[in-house]
């Protein structure tokens, strides 16, 4: 089974704390909006969203930092994913 | 009797828990916005909505994930449906 | 006496519960936004509304589902009507 | 003395309850936004408002239904008027 | 000393109650947004404001009705003025 | 050290009460939004801001009236400045 | 490891109080929105953001003043960074 996100949406899988530590990224416990790290699993086609042309800038497999409270969570085949808009992705970690 | 949704609206029928389990999708009980799974029953014609050209990307019979709090519920001939905008549909499950 | 709605407004007359039952539509008593069924009585000319070209998609006599809290109520010659924007109409029932 | 409304504004004079009854219009006492009936006294020139071309659709002498809470009240030469935007006028009664 | 308002701003001087009475305008003490009467002292050049072309429709010396809560007050050379946007002026009294 | 404001931002230095008195401007202590007087210290380049072409209308040395609650304060080399958008400047005093 | 910010986002590293003092900038402890000083570490490519063409005006190594509550914090390889939009940067200090 496969999720095909619509428009400018992206399906991501959150990275576990251990993976974050291995990759050297630690997210602080402040009261501010906390970004999270995840891996991109599926990318929507982009196109015209709200009358604006959106070009997708992330690809499957990218490690990304995204806003903690963005998106919706869904569990498929026992795995948890988050579906969010590309504009909720802050940066790609290379 | 048939519902003809206007503009970018879509009529969907929520999938029961058993169907979700059979299809391998389980929705977690978190405090965040919870997506739901449904089958598309009717699709509006799209066209110009709020001055923006909307092209319909979903089709009758598609299994879709949508925002739990989106749309309006209506019961027709004993069946419950939800009418929502296409932009409230997050992804198609294939 | 006749009401001529301006712009993208539509005058509708709510259908009584009995009519809804006869037509097979029952509206559930949930806490969510509840759609209502009504018959279209008058349709505005459409045209440019908020700088956007609006084409009217409903016609006199259409049975429509609309958002419960949309529009303004008015009583004319002893009959109650609701005046709302076409965008508050969710679907036409055929 | 004469009021010349700017842009898409309209000066109206509310019709008294007796006039409403004579004309067959009664406004219900519900908790919802209540439309009111009035006669158009002056009409602004329209033109570009908020960057959008507004064409005036009402004329002096029109009986109109408008949103109760719209506009500002002013008393001139002992007469009370309301100044509102044309978009706050719901319909013309003919 | 002279105030040169920027863009679509207008400098006005409120008319005293006596002047209002002389000119036949009385403003009611209702709970709704109350318009006020004033004389236009300085008019900005208009031009592009928020990406929209604004043409100034009022002139120095015009008696205008404006929204009570609009604008900012300033005292210059012992005189109190209000600086507001032209869109907060409802009508010109002639 | 020099501050180079971005886009349509302006760096201003508030005028002290004495300077205001000397220049004949007194700002009233009302409950409404209170404009303040200041001198323009640095002016951003303008250009496209939020997709709209902004032309700078104020110059270094201009005495301006601005909204009290607009902008951010910063202290540089012991001097306090305010950085705000040009649209928060109400008028130039000449 | 490197952060590649998307669109109009910028990665900055806050300057410590000592660095601010050395550079002559002191930020006051007022109740208003407080700008902060930081050094630009990475700059996104700009391009079309929300349908508007954004050109990046800051460069790696720039000392910038930004809104205190803007952006998201992230710790990478033991260093804390803030990711924000260029429009949250008020000025460059030269």
Protein described:
7 copies of one chain form a homoheptamer. Chain A has one helix at residues 17-22, and strands at residues 3-5, 9-14, 25-26, 35-43, 47-49, 52-54, 63-67, 72-76, 79-85, 89-93. In chain A, the strands form 2 sheets. Chain A has a 6-stranded antiparallel beta sheet, with no helix packed on it. The first copy, chain A, has a two-stranded antiparallel ribbon with strand order 5-6. Chain A has a single domain (9-84), classed as 10 Kd Chaperonin, Protein Cpn10, Chain O. The N and C termini of chain A lie far apart (29 Å). The first copy, chain A, has 94 residues and is mainly beta.
Topology:
The structure is a homoheptamer of 94-residue chains.
Chain A: E1 3-5, E2 9-14, H1 17-22, E3 25-26, E4 35-43, E5 47-49, E6 52-54, E7 63-67, E8 72-76, E9 79-85, E10 89-93
Brief account:
7 copies of one chain form a homoheptamer. Chain A has 94 residues and is mostly beta strands.
């Amino acid at each position: 089974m496969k999720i095909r996100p619509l428009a400018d949406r992206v399906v991501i899988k959150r990275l576990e704390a251990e993976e974050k530590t291995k990759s050297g990224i630690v997210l602080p416990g402040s009261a501010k909006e906390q970004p999270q790290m995840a891996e991109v699993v599926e990318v929507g086609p982009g196109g015209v969203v709200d009358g604006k042309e959106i070009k997708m800038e992330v690809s499957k497999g990218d490690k990304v930092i995204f806003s903690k409270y963005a998106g919706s969570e869904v569990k498929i085949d026992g795995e948890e994913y988050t579906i969010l808009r590309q504009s909720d992705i802050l940066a790609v970690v290379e």
